[in-house]
Design a protein that fits this description.
alpha+beta, elongated, 8 strands, 5 helices, 175 residues, Immunoglobulin-like, 4-stranded antiparallel β-sheet, 2 domains, single chain, 27% strand, 4-stranded mixed β-sheet
């Protein structure tokens, strides 16, 4: 009798492990954006050029999306709106100068980006990103997004209600 119970228990654990690994993750899509498209994060050719805000306005950003900044001899700072307007920050929220910076949009709202190199922000190397309140599934990339470097990337997120449902179902079935 004990060996019969152990056989059921082993089957239960095997089935449970399989179902948890295949069903307890819900696929959510996020996008990865190359900031500025093929040009990257570079100082605009003319003063006060708004190419980055124009680029940002052609894209929809959701929580979980990733911005990729590619640049040479520059930096990326996330700052407050006041610091954005002044093109100066002594204590940025985020700083990177490695030439290939990924920044994950982790909340809805506005994000303010500037260059940390003197004079670059004033020439237009700055950008405001608006992240949407609700995380909506991405649609097919438009030609602007494709040219701008948006790439669809799968992301997984655990689903606790599914796990609890599975435990309850199989627990009742085998007990």
């Amino acid at each position: 009798m004990a060996s019969l119970f152990m056989g059921y228990r082993a089957k239960f654990l095997l089935i449970l492990a399989f179902l948890m690994s295949s069903l307890c993750f819900v696929n959510v899509m996020c996008a990865e954006f190359e900031v500025g498209g093929d040009k990257g994060w570079v100082t605009p050719p003319s003063k006060n050029d708004q190419i980055y805000n124009q680029w940002a306005s052609k894209n929809r950003f959701n929580v979980g999306d990733i911005l990729r900044f590619k640049y040479d001899k520059d930096s990326v700072l996330v700052v407050t709106d006041e610091e954005y307007d002044k093109c100066k920050s002594s204590h940025p929220i985020f700083f990177s100068n490695n030439g290939d910076t990924d920044f994950k949009l982790d909340r809805p709202g506005l994000f303010y980006f500037i260059s940390g190199v003197a004079g670059h922000c004033e020439r237009g190397l700055k950008m405001i990103i608006k992240v949407l309140e609700l995380e909506s599934p991405p649609t097919q990339p438009s030609s602007d997004q494709t040219n701008g470097g948006a790439v669809q990337v799968a992301k997984t997120m655990s689903s606790p209600p599914v796990v609890m449902l599975l435990f309850s179902f199989f627990g009742a079935l085998f007990m």
